[in-house]
Amino acid sequence: MGSRLKLFLPLILFAIMAVFLFRGLSLDPQAMPSALIDQPLPEFTLPVLGEDRLLKRDELVGEVALLNVWATWCSSCRVEHPYLLQIAASGVPVYGINYKDDDAAAGRWLAELGNPYRANIADREGSLGLDLGVYGAPETYLVDARGVVRYRHVGVVDERVWQTILQPLYQQLNAQGSGG
Amino acid sequence: MSLALLVVALWAGSALAVIETYQFSDPALEQRYQQLSSELRCPKCQNQNIADSNAPIAKDLRKLLYQQLEAGAGDEEILDYMVARYGEFVRYRPRFDGATAVLWLAPVLLLLAGIAAAAATLRGRARRAQQATPLSTDDEKRLRDLLGKTENDS
What is the distance of C-alpha A17 from the center of its chain? Predict the structure, then answer.
């Protein structure tokens, strides 16, 4: 009896491995949990792109908003851009963090492709990016009305990402805000 | 003139390709820089440490590491700073806690499981050897005959 069972051991091991490997198919190896989830948005005081003023963290906080890290050197940002325009047009506050970019180039980009952003933070040295734990562009953060980071998406925000992940969270956070 | 320009252009190109070097005020700092930069994982290219990676983020982190070392920060302080931003993931030797316990304990547990399996197998084999019924006298004689035959043949 015992030895009969032992014959099935390779099959059992294979089955266990298959389960893990199958799960691995749908995992993104690049996905990395953000250390900032459920942490307050870091403090910053940085110039606004194209304007002669500074923007502080506290001016940004107060409503549920998206924070989009982008740059003109980032080719995926160009792919993402039209969809951001759509999201912004639907009334969602979108702020930009122009990450390690050239102000003039960024200005041209917005003039040419349209501007979905309420305001753009010019993070020329990448200091805010560092505090956020940004490791590439585009990245998009969902910040709640109290200025707590609730979600980070690394990569292009497209219709699928918005409708399956970001929008439900956005609506849920807004409902919580008006309810409580 | 144009040759000089060409040389300068080529030289600049190769200088860009090389990972930058920093001048440290103290050789001990340089040693800690080497140590820490090989222990910190590049968040973008996840199978490389920041010492080996050419990614812009790794370059930024090296610069930051240099600045912090020169400013007199301790190893723990620097690692805490990095972990606060990039998560425990950024360390190749993560702290022991709930999430990383399986990483730290798995090798020990697997080793113990292996030893247990080996011990069980060996014990089972020894028991079977003891229990083996000895050959009857006839069989033993036949065996000796057969063995003798082959030996004679060769």
Answer: 33
